[in-house]
Amino acid sequence: MSANLEAKKLVVEEIKEKLSKAKSVTFVDYTGLTVEEDTAMRREFKKNGAEYKVYKNKLMLLALNELGIKGAEEFLHGTSAVAFSYDDEVSGAKVVCETATKTKKLSVKFGLLNGSFVEGKEIEALAKLPSKEVLLAKLLGTLNAPASALCRVLNAPIQGLAIALNAIATK
């Protein structure tokens, strides 16, 4: 076998490993993106526990087919890059969509969410979700609200008595 073929096999294995490890994957068309915009976007990916790479379409297609993921054939043409989100499902998609909004040069082709094929519209909807920390804070606030209300209700008679005694003492 030629050295070139071996190198391509290694790249396909690398892609498969990253696809398997990632919670979500976003495939994008990066036509027209400048080096400065690309560098700034890569920094954002790194901050958010995600990775952005450019691979050849044929190698990405081979890796997807070997993992049994179908439906990417019609989207993998032209300039394609891939964003792997390792920490959570939202971070990579959020960075891609924010960059697309800022630059007007990036577009979402499709994505993978927990190993399943999803269309670009679904990835964009995913990017609009709040972060995991915000969602957890909202949940905790919702769960804490009844207990807080109960404490206020139970505290009201004592507070009223204290106010009345204070009013009598100041006369």
Describe the 3D structure.
The chain has two domains: 3-129, Ribosomal protein L10, N-terminal RNA-binding domain (Alpha-Beta Plaits, 2-Layer Sandwich); 130-171. The longest helix is centred in the last third of the chain and has 39 residues, at 132-170. A hairpin with a 2-residue loop joins strand 4 (107-113) and strand 5. It has a five-stranded antiparallel sheet. 60% of the residues lie in helices and 15% in strands. Helix 1 packs across helix 3. The mean pLDDT is 84. The chain is an alpha+beta fold. The termini are far apart.
Indicate the radius of gyration in whole angstroms.
25 Å
**What global shape is seen?**
elongated
Summarize model confidence as the mean pLDDT: 84
Helix content: 55-70%
Please give the CATH class of the largest domain: Alpha Beta
- Level-2 CATH architecture of the largest domain: 2-Layer Sandwich
